[in-house]
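Quick one:
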Amino acid sequence: MPASVPARVLPFAAYMAFIAIGDLLPAAGIATAEGRWLYAIKIAFVAALLWAYRRQYTELARFDVTARSGAAAVAVGLLVFVLWINLDAGWMQFGVSAGFDPRNDVGVIDWRLALIRIAGAALVVPIMEELFWRSFVLRWLESADFASVEPARVGVRALAITALLFGVEHQLWFAGIVAGLAYSWLYMRSGSLWVAVIAHGVTNGALGLWVLATGNWHYW
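Output:
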């Protein structure tokens, strides 16, 4: 197995494993308030893996974002955010999410938890997910030698499958599919993974600020 594959898969796999662990905490008798710190551990662990593999992320070695593609990334990222908080009909989601509530026992926001959540969602998660979904899965569906596949050469089949899988990774699966199509389109059009990362980061950052402002914790 080429070294570039685990470099893109392991950070994502670790992130999903931590989610599974978080789901098991209540059964282990660990209170939700205590379990909230698991997010900080998860983000730190994933960030450490990304740092350890950093030399293998050749598509991120150069910040190849132009003014035009950067503006498009910000615009698409904000559009996906707006769609995300509106595409929430019952049939568009898997059950009901408790989300991430950073408030303490007296209802005051614990800003340590809140800022870690925003930083993780806006800075670490976009890099981890775009390396897995766009850099790896999207191109691997075109060819096992995914590193040789130019983003613009990706076909409709790979685009659709990747967007569908990206969607079902999220509780708001329909919004997730829309987001997956948007980020993939940016990547395929610009040829730059950084453009997709920026859009993803803008979406997650805007969502985090909106959640803190409105108290809609279930979106987290």
